[in-house]
Amino acid sequence: MPNSFSIGPITIHLYGVIIMFGAIMAAWLSARQVKQRNLNPDLVWDMLPWLLIAGVVGARLWHILTPPASMVERGITTWYYLTHPLDAIAIWNGGLGIPGAVMGGALALYLYCRKKGLSFAEWTDIIAPGLALAQAIGRWGNFVNQELYGAPTNLPWAIFIDPIHRLPEFKDVAYYHPLFLYESIYNLLNMAFLLWAGRKFSDRLKKGDIFLLYLIIYPVGRFFLEFLRLDPSPLAGLNVNQTLMAVIAISSAVGLFWRHRKGSNSPQTVSG
In this structure, is residue 271 part of a structural domain? Predict the structure, then answer.
Protein backbone atom coordinates (compact mmCIF):
# COMPACT_ATOMS: atom_id res chain seq x y z
CA MET A 1 0.00 0.00 0.00
CA PRO A 2 1.44 3.40 -0.99
CA ASN A 3 1.97 5.78 1.94
CA SER A 4 2.32 8.94 -0.13
CA PHE A 5 1.34 10.57 -3.40
CA SER A 6 2.60 13.51 -5.42
CA ILE A 7 0.96 16.65 -6.71
CA GLY A 8 3.50 18.06 -9.14
CA PRO A 9 6.78 18.47 -7.23
CA ILE A 10 5.04 18.19 -3.85
CA THR A 11 4.91 14.85 -2.01
CA ILE A 12 1.93 14.36 0.27
CA HIS A 13 2.39 11.80 3.04
CA LEU A 14 -0.81 10.00 4.04
CA TYR A 15 0.39 9.76 7.63
CA GLY A 16 0.31 13.54 7.93
CA VAL A 17 -3.03 13.80 6.14
CA ILE A 18 -4.59 11.33 8.57
CA ILE A 19 -3.16 13.13 11.60
CA MET A 20 -4.51 16.45 10.32
CA PHE A 21 -7.93 14.96 9.59
CA GLY A 22 -8.05 13.56 13.12
CA ALA A 23 -7.21 16.99 14.56
CA ILE A 24 -9.94 18.69 12.51
CA MET A 25 -12.53 16.12 13.56
CA ALA A 26 -11.47 16.54 17.19
CA ALA A 27 -11.93 20.31 16.87
CA TRP A 28 -15.34 19.81 15.26
CA LEU A 29 -16.50 17.59 18.12
CA SER A 30 -15.08 19.98 20.70
CA ALA A 31 -16.87 22.90 19.04
CA ARG A 32 -20.15 21.01 19.44
CA GLN A 33 -19.36 20.50 23.11
CA VAL A 34 -18.64 24.20 23.48
CA LYS A 35 -22.01 25.15 22.00
CA GLN A 36 -23.78 22.89 24.49
CA ARG A 37 -22.04 24.76 27.29
CA ASN A 38 -23.09 28.15 25.84
CA LEU A 39 -19.48 29.13 25.20
CA ASN A 40 -17.89 30.58 22.08
CA PRO A 41 -17.01 27.79 19.58
CA ASP A 42 -14.59 30.12 17.79
CA LEU A 43 -12.23 29.56 20.70
CA VAL A 44 -11.78 25.95 19.60
CA TRP A 45 -10.60 26.91 16.13
CA ASP A 46 -8.45 29.69 17.55
CA MET A 47 -6.59 27.33 19.88
CA LEU A 48 -6.39 24.42 17.42
CA PRO A 49 -3.12 25.44 15.68
CA TRP A 50 -1.35 25.91 19.02
CA LEU A 51 -2.58 22.61 20.44
CA LEU A 52 -1.78 20.78 17.21
CA ILE A 53 1.75 22.13 16.97
CA ALA A 54 2.45 21.50 20.65
CA GLY A 55 0.92 18.02 20.41
CA VAL A 56 3.04 17.03 17.41
CA VAL A 57 6.21 18.44 18.97
CA GLY A 58 5.47 16.66 22.25
CA ALA A 59 4.67 13.41 20.44
CA ARG A 60 7.90 13.55 18.46
CA LEU A 61 9.98 14.40 21.52
CA TRP A 62 8.47 11.44 23.35
CA HIS A 63 9.44 9.15 20.47
CA ILE A 64 12.95 10.60 20.37
CA LEU A 65 13.39 10.11 24.11
CA THR A 66 11.85 6.60 24.13
CA PRO A 67 12.67 4.92 20.79
CA PRO A 68 11.42 1.34 20.40
CA ALA A 69 13.81 -1.55 20.94
CA SER A 70 14.14 -2.43 17.24
CA MET A 71 15.36 1.09 16.45
CA VAL A 72 17.82 1.05 19.33
CA GLU A 73 19.25 -2.22 17.98
CA ARG A 74 19.81 -0.48 14.62
CA GLY A 75 21.60 2.39 16.34
CA ILE A 76 18.70 4.83 16.14
CA THR A 77 18.84 6.03 19.72
CA THR A 78 18.04 9.30 21.42
CA TRP A 79 21.63 10.38 20.83
CA TYR A 80 21.32 9.52 17.15
CA TYR A 81 18.31 11.81 16.81
CA LEU A 82 20.08 14.59 18.66
CA THR A 83 22.99 14.38 16.22
CA HIS A 84 20.82 13.93 13.10
CA PRO A 85 18.29 16.80 13.23
CA LEU A 86 16.80 16.07 9.80
CA ASP A 87 15.85 12.56 10.94
CA ALA A 88 14.54 13.99 14.20
CA ILE A 89 11.93 16.09 12.38
CA ALA A 90 10.96 13.45 9.79
CA ILE A 91 7.56 12.75 11.36
CA TRP A 92 6.13 11.65 8.01
CA ASN A 93 8.00 8.38 8.50
CA GLY A 94 6.06 7.74 11.68
CA GLY A 95 7.25 7.96 15.24
CA LEU A 96 4.78 9.99 17.29
CA GLY A 97 4.16 9.03 20.92
CA ILE A 98 0.68 9.53 22.34
CA PRO A 99 1.92 10.36 25.88
CA GLY A 100 4.02 13.20 24.51
CA ALA A 101 1.15 14.44 22.35
CA VAL A 102 -1.18 14.64 25.36
CA MET A 103 1.42 16.35 27.52
CA GLY A 104 2.36 18.84 24.82
CA GLY A 105 -1.25 19.62 24.00
CA ALA A 106 -2.16 19.96 27.67
CA LEU A 107 0.67 22.44 28.23
CA ALA A 108 -0.42 24.52 25.25
CA LEU A 109 -4.04 24.42 26.45
CA TYR A 110 -3.00 25.55 29.93
CA LEU A 111 -1.03 28.50 28.54
CA TYR A 112 -3.88 29.42 26.20
CA CYS A 113 -6.49 29.29 28.98
CA ARG A 114 -4.28 31.33 31.26
CA LYS A 115 -3.82 33.99 28.58
CA LYS A 116 -7.56 34.14 27.76
CA GLY A 117 -8.81 33.85 31.34
CA LEU A 118 -10.56 30.52 30.71
CA SER A 119 -11.06 27.56 33.02
CA PHE A 120 -8.35 25.02 32.19
CA ALA A 121 -10.24 22.20 33.95
CA GLU A 122 -13.43 22.90 31.99
CA TRP A 123 -11.58 23.00 28.69
CA THR A 124 -9.85 19.69 29.34
CA ASP A 125 -13.35 18.24 29.73
CA ILE A 126 -14.44 19.82 26.45
CA ILE A 127 -11.45 18.50 24.54
CA ALA A 128 -11.21 15.00 26.05
CA PRO A 129 -13.81 13.27 23.80
CA GLY A 130 -12.30 14.94 20.73
CA LEU A 131 -8.85 13.82 21.82
CA ALA A 132 -10.05 10.21 21.92
CA LEU A 133 -11.56 10.67 18.45
CA ALA A 134 -8.31 12.12 17.09
CA GLN A 135 -6.42 9.12 18.46
CA ALA A 136 -8.90 6.72 16.86
CA ILE A 137 -8.38 8.35 13.48
CA GLY A 138 -4.66 8.91 13.87
CA ARG A 139 -3.97 5.23 14.48
CA TRP A 140 -4.84 4.58 10.84
CA GLY A 141 -1.64 6.41 10.00
CA ASN A 142 0.13 3.45 11.61
CA PHE A 143 -1.74 1.16 9.22
CA VAL A 144 -0.58 3.18 6.22
CA ASN A 145 3.03 3.01 7.43
CA GLN A 146 2.68 -0.67 8.41
CA GLU A 147 3.79 0.02 11.97
CA LEU A 148 2.31 -0.66 15.40
CA TYR A 149 1.22 -4.18 14.58
CA GLY A 150 0.91 -6.81 17.27
CA ALA A 151 2.05 -10.36 17.80
CA PRO A 152 1.75 -12.98 15.04
CA THR A 153 -1.70 -14.53 14.73
CA ASN A 154 -3.84 -16.72 12.48
CA LEU A 155 -7.10 -14.98 13.41
CA PRO A 156 -9.39 -14.12 10.47
CA TRP A 157 -8.79 -10.38 10.93
CA ALA A 158 -5.00 -10.67 10.95
CA ILE A 159 -3.20 -8.18 8.71
CA PHE A 160 -0.40 -8.88 6.27
CA ILE A 161 2.85 -7.00 6.88
CA ASP A 162 5.34 -6.58 4.06
CA PRO A 163 8.72 -8.22 4.75
CA ILE A 164 10.47 -4.83 4.73
CA HIS A 165 8.39 -3.71 7.71
CA ARG A 166 8.78 -6.89 9.78
CA LEU A 167 11.08 -7.16 12.76
CA PRO A 168 14.22 -9.22 12.01
CA GLU A 169 13.17 -12.10 14.25
CA PHE A 170 9.80 -12.33 12.48
CA LYS A 171 10.96 -12.14 8.85
CA ASP A 172 9.20 -15.40 7.99
CA VAL A 173 5.90 -14.47 9.68
CA ALA A 174 3.36 -12.77 7.43
CA TYR A 175 0.24 -12.09 9.55
CA TYR A 176 -0.13 -10.14 12.79
CA HIS A 177 -2.65 -8.68 15.21
CA PRO A 178 -3.88 -5.30 13.87
CA LEU A 179 -2.90 -3.55 17.07
CA PHE A 180 -3.55 -0.14 15.54
CA LEU A 181 -7.15 -1.23 14.85
CA TYR A 182 -7.70 -2.50 18.38
CA GLU A 183 -6.59 0.82 19.79
CA SER A 184 -8.63 2.77 17.22
CA ILE A 185 -11.82 0.92 18.19
CA TYR A 186 -11.02 1.29 21.89
CA ASN A 187 -10.58 5.04 21.46
CA LEU A 188 -13.93 5.32 19.68
CA LEU A 189 -15.57 3.52 22.59
CA ASN A 190 -13.74 5.83 24.99
CA MET A 191 -15.04 8.87 23.11
CA ALA A 192 -18.61 7.53 23.22
CA PHE A 193 -18.36 6.81 26.95
CA LEU A 194 -16.98 10.27 27.76
CA LEU A 195 -19.80 11.93 25.82
CA TRP A 196 -22.37 9.73 27.55
CA ALA A 197 -20.92 10.29 31.02
CA GLY A 198 -20.86 14.05 30.47
CA ARG A 199 -24.58 14.05 29.81
CA LYS A 200 -25.68 11.30 32.20
CA PHE A 201 -23.86 12.67 35.27
CA SER A 202 -23.81 16.38 34.46
CA ASP A 203 -25.34 17.20 37.84
CA ARG A 204 -22.63 15.31 39.74
CA LEU A 205 -19.47 16.07 37.80
CA LYS A 206 -16.84 18.62 38.73
CA LYS A 207 -14.78 20.50 36.20
CA GLY A 208 -11.94 18.25 35.12
CA ASP A 209 -13.75 14.97 35.86
CA ILE A 210 -14.25 14.05 32.20
CA PHE A 211 -10.55 14.50 31.53
CA LEU A 212 -9.73 12.38 34.58
CA LEU A 213 -12.00 9.67 33.16
CA TYR A 214 -10.06 9.89 29.91
CA LEU A 215 -6.82 9.56 31.90
CA ILE A 216 -8.18 6.37 33.44
CA ILE A 217 -9.85 4.72 30.46
CA TYR A 218 -7.22 5.24 27.77
CA PRO A 219 -4.22 4.21 29.91
CA VAL A 220 -6.00 1.04 31.08
CA GLY A 221 -6.65 -0.05 27.51
CA ARG A 222 -3.17 0.93 26.36
CA PHE A 223 -1.63 -0.95 29.30
CA PHE A 224 -3.19 -4.24 28.22
CA LEU A 225 -2.62 -3.68 24.50
CA GLU A 226 1.08 -3.25 25.21
CA PHE A 227 1.23 -7.00 25.97
CA LEU A 228 0.58 -7.62 22.26
CA ARG A 229 3.18 -5.13 21.10
CA LEU A 230 6.31 -6.71 19.65
CA ASP A 231 8.45 -3.59 19.76
CA PRO A 232 8.08 -1.80 23.12
CA SER A 233 10.15 1.14 24.28
CA PRO A 234 12.51 -0.09 27.02
CA LEU A 235 13.86 2.08 29.79
CA ALA A 236 15.81 0.61 32.71
CA GLY A 237 14.43 -2.81 31.79
CA LEU A 238 10.81 -1.66 31.80
CA ASN A 239 8.32 -0.99 29.01
CA VAL A 240 8.21 2.77 29.55
CA ASN A 241 4.84 3.29 27.87
CA GLN A 242 3.16 0.48 29.75
CA THR A 243 4.62 1.59 33.06
CA LEU A 244 3.57 5.19 32.49
CA MET A 245 0.03 4.09 31.58
CA ALA A 246 -0.26 2.20 34.86
CA VAL A 247 0.95 5.19 36.87
CA ILE A 248 -1.41 7.61 35.11
CA ALA A 249 -4.45 5.34 35.39
CA ILE A 250 -3.93 4.67 39.09
CA SER A 251 -3.14 8.27 40.03
CA SER A 252 -6.11 9.58 38.01
CA ALA A 253 -8.46 7.05 39.62
CA VAL A 254 -7.23 8.07 43.06
CA GLY A 255 -7.65 11.73 42.14
CA LEU A 256 -11.20 11.20 40.89
CA PHE A 257 -12.13 9.25 44.02
CA TRP A 258 -10.58 11.90 46.25
CA ARG A 259 -12.54 14.66 44.56
CA HIS A 260 -15.84 12.86 45.18
CA ARG A 261 -15.16 11.33 48.56
CA LYS A 262 -17.84 11.72 51.19
CA GLY A 263 -17.69 15.13 52.79
CA SER A 264 -15.94 16.83 49.85
CA ASN A 265 -17.26 20.04 48.39
CA SER A 266 -20.41 19.82 46.27
CA PRO A 267 -19.83 19.28 42.54
CA GLN A 268 -19.30 22.20 40.23
CA THR A 269 -22.00 21.23 37.78
CA VAL A 270 -21.07 20.97 34.11
CA SER A 271 -23.43 20.71 31.19
CA GLY A 272 -23.19 18.86 27.90
Answer: no
